[in-house]
Amino acid sequence: MKAAAFSSPGTPDVLQMMEFDDPHAGAGQVRVRVKAAGVQPFDLALRSGWSPPPGITVQLPQIPGNEFAGVVDQVGEGVTGFAIGSEVIGYKMLTCYAEYVTVDASQIVVKPQSMPWEVAGGLSGAGQAAYTGLKEIGAGHGDTVLIHAAAGAVGTIAVQLAQAWGATVIGTASERNHDYLRSLGAIPVAYGEGLAERVRALAPHGIDAVLDGAGGDALRVSVEWVRNRERIGTLVGFDLAEELGIRSIRSQRSAARLAELADLYEQGKLRLHIRSTFPLHQAADAHREVETGHGRGKVVLTFD
Fold first, then answer.
1. Are residues 94 and 133 in the same domain?
2. What's the pTM?
3. Which ranges in the chain belong to alpha helices (H)?
4. Within a domain: residue 119?
């Protein structure tokens, strides 16, 4: 099979098309012919030489990618609920920039018929990170929640989930993305000097919880608004989290959570903006696009 992989860490240029042996489904697994795979900041960090957490092993040449959507073309012994031809969404660590993925059947769900492939390919990573983050900070009915980097892929879904759970959402973003945030139902606020005052003006009764996808100054100023630092969480600023005494949040993934996100999409209560798509052989260009930062929505690789 063809895959985009790297033989040594470095710039996006280290991503090259390579040939690998076709995988085969074992007991309890399916093989999926991939139609789309999301590009995550995690992928960029790994490619550039970042050391992943314990339990994640890089084996060169390494295929990146942790989320995918495609069509089941092989079913292993003992699998029920899926058959050859099933259209699915799934997640698996470090294998998804490839024509085929073998995965435990417990890590896939049925793709809604109305969901485009590029949305399906980009849903799991952003969706499950947003879900995990909001649950860890206890976002729910009656809360006013501030989301940093609200126009990004994770932020886009976090805005919608928080509202679905009964919260009022204020979202930080560059001014060119303010209309986009309004379309999602959030109250937009600009980054930069004076952020604390702007947020206080929008939420005179205070902020109950903060979910951060930006890090830096936006995260530092968040401690001015929320008395209980257990209700401030960051998905990116882990070093700063330790300094400030707030939550470092790492995404927890499950098929049940992914199925809930797919159901919300099917009900028209959740959408994911696709910023751009790239064919698999342009994976390096996709990484460059994500590296620009502050983009709206998700970057996805597509497959013929």
1. no
2. 0.94
3. 41-47, 117-136, 153-164, 178-184, 195-202, 216-222, 238-244, 255-266, 283-291
4. no
